[in-house]
């Protein structure tokens, strides 16, 4: 290469390199443009949302909670206005310290308790904190008159949930409390705030979405230091809806009172079986269900022992919480009407009879000779008390509650089962299912039990973990005794009081299985305007044969007149109000018998079914029947006869 | 035959046209597009500085924008003054310019200079103004290196290259002592770009780039910088990572830009901007105001204005009347491009965070005035390309 050539190349070089630089520059600008597009039009949506969250804080103030009303519009749960002292946390730390000290002195509480509330992270920092509620009007006056000594303190009236009836209807109404972390997670869409009040049980929980007030939502714009600048948007609060329950306050009151009275009385009775240590009945718990037989409305539902939901307002004190969970107090929080599971005893005979007639195992005219006992599958089964009823039909068997009659039916069912006719062999089980047993009633209350209908599959499942293969094999077979026990409501059968009442309602109304209804209307707050009617719901037809119904009903009508409940219904004006019923005295392993009674009123076109169950209380006629009589009298508008006072005779 | 007779007359016409161009006032060849783009950018910058600062000084929303207005005004005057001077005079004075540059950088490191935000890089002036010599150092360095390369055009052997690099290393080292890593990087890039066009061979170029990379590595790792400066610098590599404090700037900045979406939140309506979520917003992070309040449309428009400035600079480099003019333009081209890419890229999380201002947009007197001077020089070269 000559020197002039080299010079030439070097001359050309700058222009080439300049072009290269131009291309590099263009590429860099394109990169910036692409990145800008990516951020602002592509993946930027998420970051843009971050910007909004950066600058806007949402402050939620709960709206007024709707009320719970009884069937006649009387208030069961409401909001009481209470004087409260609130402290604004945005004041200077020195002022805060001063204010805490002065408030503590004035209210006679330790400063730490006020500080604890002030430091409660669950309350939005943009809202004043209620540090004391239920404050005397004097304290409020002092603060208002010396406002300069209490910077950032305001006296206000805040709504507090209150149950004017105290413990009345506690299990149906339920109680409220601060929303838990689990509930927050579960109800993400409902946008609950920490510290907000929610229904924890009963109707308060069941109708939470209706009762909950529309919260006031303030969107506050804050700067990078979190200092509020202005309110961007505010949505005013609105009260929640009132819920009208189907409960009748008067009947509820009667039911709870008579249940408590009967339990107290039972504890004074001698326990012949002496299974309880004291020689008297323990009667630790019981429940009553009053159903409208035509539409399934729950007119009253009581569970004893009970509690006062007012005590749950500001978080329950530790000693009370301990008491509520102490076994010695028999767990008052349990709603035994829907969570208690009992052997129904002789009250079950109604359903055995329905199944037997339907399956053709017996007929109203069939007569069985009741000698007081019967031998089935190598075992002898006795009537309770060893009574001999002689030759009896189905009607009479129900009235006098003949076990032998139903043992015989049970043996017949087992015979069919044994010969391979499982349809007839399991007729009681199948019929029981159509009457709603073995599954929750879906009344809507939390924790409802399903009950239990035993059959061979159940026995297999129940004993699947039995280590001894011989015992396991024996226990897994459906035996004659199982059918016999089932026919009289014993054995592995379990029902809840609400299931029992609903089953009787389906029988009484001619075969309509209803979903129990706890509320009839959703209304605007404190207004007659109806938002929504909650219609009764018929779940299914039980295909009850009218002839079978009248045969059984005739037997049940005899029970309070001449049968097992004649004593507790002595003097009842049957000519004015025709009633029917069935006693039950259920055997329980290692415990005294459960006392049960179910009543129907009136027998022509039945309106009400009343079921009473008292644990470890002896005969159905002694404890449960007087309860039902008292309630029926109240429902029918009769003068109360106080049947509990009459000395009960031990018959079932 | 028209073709035969027309050829000489066309040639004559071209010659007379060239003569006319040379004889005419240089003002006739003013690059109006360049000046318009620069004025437009500075105007947008004023608006954005206003939006970013109107809530920061209580009772005086115009505090910063008034000062920035003065800077722009002074900058325009200086630009006009530089344009009026024939750039070839500067070429002959390049040694003097270099001397002034070294003197200024030494002075700022002496007790005469003052310290702000961990950097010894300012002269405190009366009236609350500050002078930042490193901004003018870039201007001076371009003239000095371009002048040296012009003198030794075509014979850039190893020895002369060493001299050229040494010329550059002294001021770069002084800037690094402040420490102002961003400016040092810009200056290094300016030198590399000028040398590349001046005739650097491929092998030499590789050596030079390796040297620059080693230098940066050494600065980052040998304790010249404070740990937080290193964290900030490297934070773009692990955004949203566990060093939350280090990535706070870039996270908030990206959020602001993304919040703009296509058409922006509207002037004065960007929540990130108006509520003060983006740190250093009126200076280094001014682009986030454009991004958030004017959206992609505004951001793209600003990038287009910058593209025009850079394109006209590149074009002037090609058209320049002498090689000195070409090299000066290349130096400024490198400076503008790197600062724009680094600054805008940093706000969008694709470049490390260094304290480099966005030309004509960021609040700050020294930088605005210095960049106007650069534009003045480019315009001067453009105007005198026929002389």
Quaternary class:
heterodimer
* Count of individual beta strands of chain B: 3
By DSSP (H or I, 4+ residues per run), the number of helices of chain A equals: 23
Sheet-strand content of chain B, in percent, reads: under 5%
**Which structural class matches the secondary elements of chain B?**
mainly alpha
Helical segment count of chain B: 15
Could you name the ranges of chain B where pLDDT drops below 50 across 5 or more consecutive residues?
1-6
Greatest chain-chain interface?
Answer: A-B, 39 and 46 residues
Strand order of the largest sheet of chain B: 1-2-3
Overall average pLDDT of chain A: 87
The CA-CA distance between the termini of chain A, in Å, is 130 Å
Written overview of the protein:
The complex is a heterodimer of chains A (652) and B (387). Chain A has 652 residues and is α+β, with helices and mostly antiparallel strands. Chain A is built from 23 helices and 23 strands. In chain A, strands 2, 3, 4, 5, 10, 18 and 19 form a 7-stranded mixed sheet that branches. Chain A has a 5-stranded antiparallel sheet with strand order 12-11-23-22-21, sandwiched between helices. Chain A has a 3-stranded antiparallel sheet with strand order 1-8-9. In chain A, a hairpin with a 6-residue loop joins strand 22 (591-601) and strand 23. In chain A, helix 1 (3-42) crosses helix 2, helix 10 runs antiparallel to helix 23 and helix 13 (349-359) packs across helix 17. Chain A is elongated. The model of chain A is unreliable at 1-12 and 647-651 (pLDDT under 50). Chain B has 387 residues and is mostly helical. Helices cover 70% and strands 3% of the residues of chain B. Chain B has a 3-stranded antiparallel sheet with strand order 1-2-3, with helices on one face. In chain B, a hairpin with a 2-residue loop joins strand 1 (114-116) and strand 2. In chain B, helix 13 runs antiparallel to helix 14 (323-347) and helix 14 (323-347) runs antiparallel to helix 15. The longest helix of chain B is centred in the C-terminal third of the chain and has 33 residues, at 287-319. Chain B is globular, with a radius of gyration of 22 Å. Residues 1-6 of chain B have low confidence and may be disordered. The chains are: A alpha+beta (652), B mainly alpha (387). At the A-B interface, helix 1 and helix 2 of A face helix 8, helix 11, helix 13 and helix 14 of B.
